[in-house]
Amino acid sequence: MRNRATRRETCRLCGHALLDEALRLVPTPEGNEFLLPSQLDREQPAIPLTIMLCARCGHAQLQDIVNPESIYKDRTYIYATSVSLGLTEHFDAYAAEFLERHQISGGLAVELGSNEGATLAAFRKRGMAVLGVDPAPDLARRANAAGLETLPTYFTADLARKIRQERGPARIVIANNVFANIDDLVDVAAGIRELLALDGLFVFESSYFLDVVEQVLLDTIFHEHLSYFSVKPLEAFFRTQGLELIHVQRTAPKGGSIRGTVQRAGGLRPVDASVAAIIDLETDAGLFQLATYRDLEARLDALKADLDQLLDTVTAGGGTVAAYGAAVGLVTLIYHFGLGSRISFIVDDYPDKQGTFSPGLRIPVLAPTALLERKPAAVVLLAWRYQQAILQKNPAYVAQGGRFILPLPRVGYLT
């Protein structure tokens, strides 16, 4: 068996060796490794899940790195864009807005971590030639079958040179919810710089660490996410890589994200005031001070205590507890809040998750009909962001007396 995890001792943005512990969460197995019944004897070691803060540039990041081969290559990678409610529509609007803002029409758009190709499709229907790069073989097959050419590999500087030689420079390079998953960002940045046309733009969207901290978005912290981005360290990183961050906006996905636009250094477009404004916001919020994370730790402890108390009232009367949502972030929630011994089963709407078992704890994942059949007294909404959609899908469970419990960003019954 290949080594499941390694430890990085330097900042992945600036290379500094001094990293301070900001937030130590309960170690977990890799969160996307749901098991089939035939795989229940598979070893799934718990790996440290600790966010470190670079003392020089302020970048927040995990030290312990799960081998990407075990996430993307060794098994079917389950997460698909189409599973997340509203995300395909979000990427369609994103493509329209981006092309309009920067007055781009035609040319090549290359996407890193292109998944099933939802973003590629949005750019293609607006006149762009598109190419995807994704290391998950099953996702690449699905995209190619849909007519969206996708290379089943990792994006590197060497691959970027090959693409440019064969297809010419890219007007747009895209990275949605994948830039944070890459350890060697220096090589990827070199590839982006190599691939971009002189007037080309790199656009990325990623979970925003200020939102994670302020809204206690615990379920966005897991091993696949190596970086927890804020604008100040990213702006400095791009400058060192011959690139320039020229625009930033906050967006809604993942409980709060940022979309950044980058050009080659000395490019044609001016730097928008949004970059300096958001850096000031981060500084004022204390995002680069360790005291902020001591406060976050205390808030997490308080949420755990509140959830424990509420679940005690459910089980004291003999009721059982289930959970809703088998996404990767559930593993962090279940482990850090100590829910493993409380949850009898998990339900999920996605058929590929049904019939599997959760990483590490082996909690069965069933179809939502199990709520009517097994009649748990309460269901913890691990997929809490989709609370209204879940409530609308399950009126029969509510009608029989069942209740949904929110674990984040506050603890309480969903009414």
Question: What is the gist of this entry?
Answer:
It is built from 14 helices and 19 strands. It has 415 residues and is α/β, with parallel strands linked by helices. The model has no long low-confidence stretch (mean pLDDT 93).
Q: How would you describe this structure to a colleague?
A:
It is a single chain. This protein has about 425 residues and is α/β, with parallel strands linked by helices. It folds into three domains: about 5-65, no CATH class; about 80-265, 3-Layer(aba) Sandwich (Rossmann fold); about 290-415, NAD(P)-binding Rossmann-like Domain (Rossmann fold). The protein is about 35% helix and about 25% strand. The chain has 14 helices and 19 strands. It has helices spanning about 70-75, 85-100, 120-125, 135-145, 155-165, 185-195, 210-215, 230-240, 275-285, 290-315, 330-335, 370-375, 385-395, 395-400; strands at about 5, 20-30, 45-55, 60, 65, 110, 130-135, 150, 170-175, 195-205, 225-230, 245-250, 255-265, 320-325, 345, 365, 380, 405, 410-415. α2 (about 85-100) packs across α3 (about 120-125) and α5 packs parallel to α6. The longest helix has 27 residues, at about 290-315. The chain is globular.
What is the rounded Rg?
22 Å
Q: Might you state the CATH topology name of the largest domain?
A: Rossmann fold
- Note the gap between the termini: 48 Å
Instruction: Please estimate the helix content.
Output: 25-40%
- The count of helical stretches stands at 14
Q: Can you say what the CATH homologous superfamily of the largest domain is?
A: Vaccinia Virus protein VP39
Reported CATH architecture of the largest domain: 3-Layer(aba) Sandwich
Q: Using DSSP, what is the number of strands?
A: 19
Low-confidence stretches: none
How many domains? Answer: 3
